[in-house]
């Protein structure tokens, strides 16, 4: 499916408004204009436009990590651009910061949109589900004076394991894993971004809780202001059965 396509008018990306996910493979260059300026030269890339309003640019490496991205809320403007062999220019603008991603497109190889529907979310294994249950029952394990708001607190991208309040009344989102990896920190970061938009909850801070936390995940969590807590599964079960950690 290889073709050059010249858009005839400026428009917003339908997927940002209609809830679908849009996959575009294009030969393009990418310029980030914001706190710093960065440039990716012309090359074939995947542009992923998701229903949550995010736009990310990927190469055929780096696993799940994009080359560049814009988190929601943002808008995508498409317009024809006839200079230096290009056919279109897409400008992604962040709704709050004004940061921009500018994609100069030379050729579109593939462009499709898909409705994925509501995702059921990750299914926790037995240990993770039990850890969540135990920690919710004994939320003061995380700190004296802490209170539970709800387990499986719903968000647009899936439920947060535990939402609670600390001794000062601040809202805390807790993500629980058996093994704490970078993916878990990224997941909690996305939850925090959504929860902090709710004026009834904000400000919301994060706690990443696991039986074992990988060093790379701990570094990333610390960089994002997320607290890491190592859980002792046996001790938590002891709380449940004997009323004490020890």
UniProtKB/TrEMBL annotation:
Keyword rRNA-binding: no
Domain Endonuclease NucS C-terminal: 127-240
Gene Ontology, cellular component aspect: cytoplasm
Record bears the keyword Cytoplasm: yes
Pfam family, one: NucS_C
Enzyme class: hydrolase
Protein localization: Cytoplasm
Endonuclease NucS N-terminal PH-like domain ranges (all copies): 21-120
InterPro entries registered for this protein in UniProt: Endonuclease_NucS (IPR002793), NucS_C (IPR048301), NucS_N (IPR048302), NucS_N_sf (IPR049173), tRNA_endonuc-like_dom_sf (IPR011856)
Coiled coil stretches, renumbered: none
GO molecular function, one term: single-stranded DNA endodeoxyribonuclease activity
The entry's keywords: Cytoplasm, DNA-binding, Endonuclease, Hydrolase, Nuclease
Main localization category: cytoplasm
EC number: 3.1.-.-
Gene3D superfamilies: 2.70.180.20, 3.40.1350.10
Domain of life: Bacteria
Family: Belongs to the NucS endonuclease family.
Function: Cleaves both 3' and 5' ssDNA extremities of branched DNA structures.
Official protein name in the record: Endonuclease NucS
Organism: Actinomadura rubrobrunea
Lineage, opening ranks: Bacteria, Bacillati, Actinomycetota, Actinomycetes, Streptosporangiales
Gene that specifies this protein: nucS
